[in-house]
Amino acid sequence: MNNNNYSEAIALFEGAETIAVFMHINPDPDCIGSALALASFLRNKGKKAYVFTPDTKTISMIPERVKFLPNVSLLNKCDKRTFDLSVAVDLGETGRIGDLALPLFYKGEKSLVIDHHETYSDFADVTVREEKASSAAQIIYKIMCRYDKNAVDKDIASLLYAGIVTDCGNFTFESTSEETFSIAAELLTYDIDFSDITRRLTKFIDYNVYRLKIRVLNETRFFVDNKLAVIVFRQKDFLDTGTKEKDTDGIINEVQNITSVLLAISISECGTDRFKVSFRSKGGVSARACAEAFGGGGHFNASGCRLSGKFEDVFDSLLAVAKSKLQYV
Prior knowledge:
alpha/beta; inorganic pyrophosphatase (n-terminal core); Diaminopimelate Epimerase, Chain A, domain 1; 2 domains; five-stranded parallel β-sheet
């Protein structure tokens, strides 16, 4: 167990009465589950803890498939604008907090980051970062156990399990470790409905999202002897299927699963000349290196960035970098 700054983090919690927890933009189940679990735990400890989405007002960025999780009703339920402590979970850079939430984050007298990404720039008073952890949830559970394991309940365990099972790819990603399995098994002792959580988050799919998925995958483009696959989500795809950018989550894994594909790229049009790009890799190819070429980052096998420009130029630039990373494979 890596007790990296756990004591300092706990001291911040102990010394704070009001605590605000922040997510990253386009939050995934690990981010959402971790943030809600931490706030719920701190409330059990008698703290006034709140959770903010990136726009601080709505839950529009929260995927529909995640809204069944416990305590989602806590989101943005706070009128305060200053706090004793601000906590950012599952992110390593201020830009990931979002333009609307970032000023609020800095209203905290003290700040803490709990993260597992390999690309980061430290910006808080205390940082707990474990790059080899499968998820932020895995780290947060260990902090909770060090602080007061008795304050963990069934809802918190469910939220943490949701974060772990999704961010480790249902225990298939290379970040899955013996510790990941051990913590997941321990969370089961809280009598959580782990099978329902797993099915809802990794198996179930909305009808409209299914239509989007089939539409886009049917247009997958392959390069470099089928080692590189690119899928594209245009605004028209979202309009025609009644979906949104947040509904693209996980679809890239479908092409990454193809045996020959070592690098998969997903390009999502999120506005006029604005694109969200995700990279997934295997076989020793670095997704992070691709993202970093465009100012992004993340994990070795899962990273992303955001780009602006005409679609054709963005596509060609991504293709050139991807091909360069595959030329020696």
